[in-house]
TrEMBL record:
Keyword Lyase: yes
Cellular-component GO terms for this entry: extracellular region
Listed Pfam families: Ribonuclease_T2
Role this protein plays: Self-incompatibility (SI) is the inherited ability of a flowering plant to prevent self-fertilization by discriminating between self and non-self pollen during pollination. In many species, self-incompatibility is controlled by the single, multiallelic locus S.
Listed GO MF terms: ribonuclease T2 activity; RNA binding
Organism: Prunus yedoensis (Yoshino cherry)
Name the record gives this protein: S-RNase
Gene3D superfamilies (alphabetical): Ribonuclease T2-like
Superkingdom of origin organism: Eukaryota
Keywords noted in UniProt: Glycoprotein, Hydrolase, Lyase, Nuclease, Signal
Length: 223
């Protein structure tokens, strides 16, 4: 046994198991809390949205455990599958307003997809109920539409803003740097998502790094 322990083969094997463990637990470094502007979803979509939304609320896209070196990872971890029965009627009512499926109209299916793809990767920190409760609390903590409105940034068919024009008031209101994501439509860059970043425990908001987002040198429309 002593000989086996010190043998290189054992060390390699132990390291391989360690790597498997890291990968199967879907290790992450921080969270991205992603909110979207539903009218942009509907504008860039090939099919019309099932339930067009008024120009009122940014809504939740998802809460994504993330890794700085690859913000799309981890995903689809080996955790418990989405269980609709775990959501109380109260929580469900809150999510229907904050986290609607603006494109296809099946809210439950949207929640199921986000949990299975992202929530499973942070299940050790937030179980399914905590994942949805925490997301709702994050949504409630800042009203992006109102922050922008107070800075005279309101939906407009032709007006444009620079990236920094939109980031600045959000930064002032939250004390943290958000990340903006855009979608292209008819050669226009449309504001689509505002990302807040949270540390590992999803409690404290932190600055987001400027990773791929809206193009810096092209003005942004908010419609
Ligand atoms: C983040 O991703 C990189 C590249 O895939 C990986 O090497 C690293 O271990 C990951 N970090 C964590 C904490 O999972
Ligand atoms: C926007 O959020 C407010 C506050 O929760 C809610 O009263 C309102 O119905 C929401 N609007 C839409 C279109 O969902
Ligand atoms: C909505 O999605 C859920 C979860 O995937 C599914 O069980 C349900 O049948 C869907 N409802 C409709 C009306 O398609
Ligand atoms: C956010 O602010 C807008 C504009 O003041 C308002 O219409 C909306 O109801 C607010 N939404 C929430 C969730 O409070
Ligand atoms: C927006 O302005 C109104 C009116 O001055 C103020 O009551 C509200 O707190 C402001 N909201 C934000 C998010 O700054
Ligand atoms: C992202 O920001 C964090 C916190 O400031 C920092 O530790 C990390 O190195 C940054 N990562 C990249 C890829 O810029
Ligand atoms: C909780 C869970 O889904 N665990 C699964 C992880 O993956 C193994 C092997 O594929 C399954 O047997 C577990 O059920």
């Amino acid at each position: 046994m002593a000989m086996l322990k010190s043998s290189p083969a054992f060390l390699v094997l132990a390291f391989a198991f360690f790597l498997c463990f890291i990968m199967s637990t879907g290790s992450y470094v921080y969270f991205q809390f992603v909110q979207q502007w539903p009218p942009t979803n509907c504008r860039v979509r090939s099919k019309p949205c099932s339930k067009p939304r008024p120009l009122q609320n940014f809504t939740i896209h998802g809460l994504w455990p993330s890794n700085y070196s690859n913000p799309r990872a981890p995903s689809n971890c080996n955790g418990s599958r989405f269980n609709d029965g775990k959501l109380s009627p109260e929580l469900r009512a809150k999510l229907k307003i904050s986290w609607p499926d603006v494109e296809n109209g099946n809210d439950t299916k949207f929640w199921e997809g986000e949990w299975n793809k992202h929530g499973t990767c942070s299940e050790g920190m937030l179980n399914q109920i905590q994942y949805f409760e925490r997301s709702y609390a994050m949504w409630m903590s800042y009203n992006i539409t109102e922050i922008l409105k107070n800075a005279s940034i309101v939906p407009h068919p032709t007006k444009t803003w620079k990236y920094s024009d939109i980031v600045a008031p959000i930064q002032t209101a939250t004390g943290r740097t958000p990340l903006l994501r855009c979608k292209w439509n008819n050669n226009n860059q449309l504001l689509h998502e505002v990302v807040f970043c949270y540390e590992y425990k999803a409690k404290k908001q932190i600055d987001c790094n400027r990773t791929a987002g809206c193009w810096n040198n092209v003005d942004i429309k908010f419609q």
